[in-house]
Amino acid sequence: MSGNCATSSRRRLPHIIAAICACLCTVVVIGLAPQTAMPTAQADEGQRQCQAGIENYITDTPWTNTLFNVEALHQQSTGKGVTVAIIDSGVSTENPHLADAVVEGKSYIPDDDSKGRKDVYSHGTIVAGIIGARRIKGSSVVGLAPDAKIMPIRVFKALREENGQTTGNADLFTLADGVRYAADHGAQVISISMSDTHDLPAMQDAVKYADKHGALVVASAGNRLTSSSTVDGMRYPAAYPEVVGVSAVTMELTSTEDAIHGTQVDVVAPGANVASTIPNGVDCGFNDGSSTSYATAFVSGQAALIAERYPDETPAQWKQRILTTANRSHPDERDDEYGWGVIDPIASLNVALSDNLRGPNINGQTTQLQADRPTDSITLAPQHDPNALAKRIIMLMTIITVVICATAWLHTLRRREDSDS
């Protein structure tokens, strides 16, 4: 009897181990599944789905609101009277945060008479929410410049993956036309959450045109996951001297994995676990491969706040405010990963521009002088990821699962060899 039991147990052992592997794999898959809702908010099931047409409300305070102290910030400036042009996939006016924020723009899509007020891809609407979402009842989501006007300039419908390449994006000629349109129609800030490896003269001319017409261009320094090239290096229009080039950081204020680095990086801003708006819905949290797109939106919102507070300054002076007040470990140095540091909107509103500021001057050159920094500027502190421990546990479980499954496979293989012999 004991021999039969032992034999039966040995026969059942592979099945038992396989069952354990299946359970562990299920737990690991669940733990590693993408979370569309922001981890810092206690979202209900509807928020996690973030589906267009469903009213999803984020009720907890987004970490970026705390980082930038938006309550104090909005006592000083809200972007009122400033128009921000968003050159992107369009902006949906069906979202209640944006219904009263969007003015007439332009669409470069054939047979599209929406004047930019249409978005089937969500990207432009997300960017618009970060910049200018209005406060609405039941939601904690609010834009960095909640009184700014949004001018949508629709230059593409949607991005697609084909043969490992991202297609469907707008070409630089269309972007250049969009920049000129925005400058001609009163935009003080032009937000471009896109980048290209090519230095196109028409694009550079358009940027210079915008600068001469009183508009500051803010552009993405590049995303690895949405770019035809994943190599660090120059990206345009971010690399032009008139433009603020933006890269992205996580909640811990460290560079995101998909951010492209290079001399085009002027500053960094939040690009992970951000809360914003979606077409035909309300709120959603985002932590995908578009981190510098979201970071560009935050800097565009900051530029709108500055433009309201200092309407008589030039775009170059607005840019200097953003760069010199960014938080960095050494006031006289920049690097290709973080540029001049993490943006500090309150400090940028209060700094007194002069030739004695440490960091870049109005011409982009570095001075080695003592900064005349405001005493009431906020100090940005990293926001720790509340799921960090869970992620480490899941990783450990993954390793254990692989070991157990490998052991089960070897045991089964050995039994088969023994039976064959």
Automatic annotation (TrEMBL):
The chain crosses the membrane at residues 393-413. It is a single-pass membrane protein. It is found in: Cell membrane. SUPFAM superfamilies: Subtilisin-like. One of its GO terms (molecular function) is serine-type endopeptidase activity. InterPro entries: Peptidase_S8/S53_dom, Peptidase_S8/S53_dom_sf, Peptidase_S8_Asp-AS, Peptidase_S8_His-AS, Peptidase_S8_subtilisin-like, Peptidase_S8_subtilisin-rel, T7SS_pept_S8A_mycosin. Residues 1-43 form the signal peptide. Residues 79-341 form the Peptidase S8/S53 domain. This is Serine protease. The lineage of its organism: Bacteria, Bacillati, Actinomycetota, Actinomycetes, Bifidobacteriales.
